[in-house]
Amino acid sequence: MYDATLPNRILRCIICDLEQSWGMWKKRVDKCMFGGGKLERYECPKCGCIFGPQKYLDLDEEFVDHDYRLLYSRYAESDSTENEIQTFRSMEPERIGPYLDWGCGGIWSRTVSRLRDEHYDVWGYEPSAETSSDFIVNHRQLISARFNGIFSNNVIEHFRTPVAQFQDFHNLLKDGGVMAHSSPCYEWSYAFTRFHTLFLLNNSPHILAERTGFRVKRRHQNGEYICYVFERV
């Protein structure tokens, strides 16, 4: 039923705002491992990102929040603490802070506690999964500080409105602040879940940065671990 509406749609790239009719977009199709059915995504000829599925981008935030909570009530991510710490160190942090681990994971992640044990002033934000730390908040409105750095691992591919999200990061960072986001989805990989709505291929990380007050400072890759470091300008 949803597919029947798409041929009459004008779709907009969520990185560069290019608009085209549905028929003009190059499509990549996969199937959701979490029961989300067909996943049709769109490759932008202007910036190079791949975005979608549109049926997930069209949902309101409340529905998506419930969908994530349902997912994490029965599914636990693998422990990504080591990758998260590697991403944190890519910012070349100092002991003075503070720093914010964005989407820091639920009870399966030990990143915040590990880094605080090393005397870094690190805090976490996790909106969807259960947490058990006094240094992690679950609601965006509880974050009022400005940070030296923001970092995430396996989060950026979940952004449905990446331009607005980067603008929010810009407001949360101090002048000259940095942020690091690592994900295998800077390449076309892990496309089998509806929760991955953004693949930042080709020049799209740079375009996203330029649109939101950042510049790409450096890129590092080791196998499927890929990390971009962005600097606030």
From TrEMBL:
Superkingdom assignment: Bacteria
Any Pfam family hit: Methyltransf_23
Gene3D superfamilies xref list: Vaccinia Virus protein VP39
InterPro entries: SAM-dependent_MTases_sf
Protein name per its UniProtKB record: Methyltransferase
